[in-house]
Design brief:
By secondary structure, the protein is α+β, with helices and mostly antiparallel strands. The chain contains 28 helices and 11 strands. The protein folds into 4 domains: 86 residues; 116 residues, no CATH class; 108 residues, Tyrosine recombinase, N-terminal domain (DNA polymerase, domain 1), CATH 1.10.150; 241 residues.
């Protein structure tokens, strides 16, 4: 299914009225081919905007009769214009007698029933502001009207007010024709004093205001004078009345000498649905993000902007569940997002923004409620998943004999990620200690040491310190973990000790007793991003391998299975929960039962006995760190540039 875009200009040229064209242009229009193969043609799917449901229905589908996509689009334009034709010329009233029909049509403007749209509400409110300011000017010049005079030129030659105003040129404001819809019975200032509190009440409280019915009657009567019959059951009726009240208040402010119509309205609640989607995001970021981490705020904002790009920055009041559902479906079924990311990532972001907008009455309904989440079949889900293939012994040997371990930093790249000791140790920590990339790159000097005679390292979560903590704003994480179970002390694998881990740690602590263990790594949104990008690029472009950095952890899992199988065959099985304790996984209760929640866990010495059972047979390890540092490390690289 491919979404098509029809511009407002195209729609108007095809015969769609202006007030309706913008709404149709912002709607969901798609061309698709039937999957059952029963038709070779392109089909049109038109998700009708909600304000037009009463006349057009909620959904229209039809064959374009064309296999060529360009011709199908032209036919789609013609079809949409044909569907909107009933909105152009509604049938005149039928309850008028034949004798009086012609006279009534002359004496009264023709009123046609309409459904309110964002554009029509703007048109009516703009006319109301102009009419109100005209009324004030005539009041200041001593002009009084008891009603709107409409004198129709008849056979005797009587002129209408508008005709006389057009034929006689004059500059006196008192003699200008009054725009339609204003009935002057009181002085303007008295009118303002009476109505201003009532209008404010309607803007702030909507239909819950005691003055809502009076203001609504004024709005309906004004629309009727301009030729529009508005029903109180219209989905946008409340938004129209509140906009109408706001238009009057702005006009009052303008004629009372304020520099701008908008001055003095900071405390007036915005009318529900009168803003576009980008405005909702701006308000959400300004008022509802202090409890979120900055990274989460940016993530939610970027995901909401993806939705805005999909539906365009349309008025918020016309966004429906259909828009949200189609966005999720197109993203998941089109392969742009995984099912988990769309339903568990993008939908919560949309719900957060729309939920806040509803709570402050920027919109009348939350389009994310009642959403049916898109789901893939098992086959489709498996096809979308990107498997993290473990390294084979041959691939590990290719890595350890490559320039990554047997070459200078300049032979690997210019990134700071390859100019320090992280280049040597991070892949080994992931392989031998089953550390996640973030866990390895965020190690600090204080995270390594000797605990009860066993060399160990610590994985933990640390929050950034702040000068002033208001208790409300979320703190940034200096170091993070995947889950609570990921926080752990674990023994150092014997192979790592053999490669010179103790010498490296001692050298690093001699430089500083605090700080990062690998200070050369840049710290962005995540501590491991820079290193991971460079390492994966090397694997793919230089070594032509189909594995990624995370595959090192999967290699540990395969080796652990071999070790456990060997232990079982020799009557030395691993104790319950040992594997999960080393790997930092949250499924300990599956093996230990409720007892997993009691005590402090396994001793490091006991854990080391089982960890060292992973031998990685067939792997040829790189040179020990002291030799590597001498020939390829940071100091050797610095000497080469002198």
């Amino acid at each position: 299914m491919e979404r098509i875009s029809l511009s407002v200009k195209e729609l108007q040229q095809a015969g769609v009225p202006k007030w309706c064209a913008k709404m149709v242009a912002d709607s969901m229009l798609s061309l698709y081919r039937r999957k059952d193969g029963k038709s070779p043609y392109w089909w049109l799917k038109f998700v009708v905007p909600e304000p037009l449901h009463a006349q057009l229905g909620a959904l229209k589908r039809v064959s374009t009769g064309h296999t060529d996509k360009v011709l199908a689009r032209k036919e789609a334009l013609r079809r949409v214009a044909e569907w909107c034709a009933p909105l152009l010329d509604p049938a005149p009233p039928t309850n008028v007698s034949p004798e009086s029909k012609s006279e009534d049509r002359l004496l009264e403007p023709f009123v046609r029933s309409v459904l309110l749209t964002h554009e029509l509400i703007d048109e009516l409110c703009r006319a109301r502001r102009e009419a109100t300011m005209w009324s004030r000017e005539d009041d200041a010049n001593g002009v009084s009207f008891d009603g709107l005079e409409q004198v129709i030129e008849d056979k005797t030659g009587v002129e209408s007010v508008s005709d006389r105003g057009a034929s006689q040129k004059h500059d006196d404001p008192a003699h200008r024709p009054l725009p339609p819809g204003i009935v002057k019975n009181t002085k303007f200032d008295e009118h303002v004093s009476e109505w201003q509190p009532r209008l404010l009440s309607v803007i702030e409280r909507g239909r819950n205001s005691d003055d809502f019915d009076d203001v609504a009657d004024e709005a309906v009567e004004f629309a009727a004078v301009l030729g529009y019959r508005v029903g109180s059951d219209d989905p946008s009726f409340v938004a129209f009345v509140r906009n109408f009240a706001r238009a009057d208040l702005r006009a009052y402010k303008a004629v009372q000498g304020d520099g701008s119509e908008a001055d003095g309205f900071a405390a007036v609640a915005p009318v529900a649905g009168s803003h576009k989607l980008d405005y909702l995001l701006t308000q959400w970021r300004a008022n509802r993000t202090r409890n979120l981490k900055p990274g989460t705020v940016e993530l939610y904002a970027s995901r909401f902007r993806v939705f805005v790009e999909h539906v365009q920055d349309i008025p918020s009041r016309i966004v429906t569940r259909t828009h949200v559902t189609r966005f999720l479906e197109d993203s998941v079924y089109g392969g742009l997002l995984t099912e988990k990311t769309a339903n568990g990532g993008y939908l919560p972001a949309l719900r957060s923004v729309f939920g806040y907008a509803l709570s402050v009455e920027l919109i009348d309904q939350d389009p994310t409620q009642g959403i049916s989440k898109p789901k893939l079949s098992k086959a489709e889900r498996a096809q979308q998943q990107k498997p993290r293939i473990p390294f084979s012994a041959e691939q590990l040997n290719a890595l350890f004999s490559s320039a990554w371990y047997a070459g200078a930093a300049r032979d690997v790249g210019t990134s700071t990620a390859v100019k320090g000791n992280a280049r040597y140790w991070v892949p080994l920590l992931e392989l031998l200690q089953v550390l996640r990339p973030e866990e390895a790159c965020q190690l600090e000097v204080t995270d390594v040491g000797v605990v009860n005679g066993t060399h160990a390292l610590r994985v933990e979560e640390v929050l950034e310190e702040v000068d002033v903590d208001d208790g409300r704003s979320a703190l940034e994480r200096r170091k993070s973990v995947k889950s609570y179970a990921s926080k752990r002390w674990l023994p150092v694998h014997q192979t790592l000790l053999d490669l010179g881990w103790v010498e490296f740690v001692s050298a690093r602590k001699a430089e500083s007793t605090t700080g990062w263990l690998f200070p050369e790594l840049s710290r962005g949104k995540n501590n491991s991003d820079a290193f991971g990008k460079r390492f994966n690029d090397f694997l793919h472009k230089r070594l032509q391998l189909d594995v990624v950095q995370y595959g090192l952890r999967h290699s540990w899992e395969d080796e652990r299975r071999r070790a456990m199988a060997h232990a079982a065959s020799t009557h030395g099985t691993w104790p319950p929960g040992m594997y999960f304790a080393i790997a930092g996984r949250a499924a300990t209760e599956k093996e230990e039962g409720s007892g997993a929640n009691y005590g402090e866990g396994y001793d490091l010495e006991d854990m080391k006995f089982f960890l060292d059972q992973l031998q990685f047979k067939g792997v040829i390890w790189p040179a020990r760190w002291p030799e590597w540092a001498k020939f390829f490390g940071p100091e050797a690289d610095a000497s080469a540039h002198r």
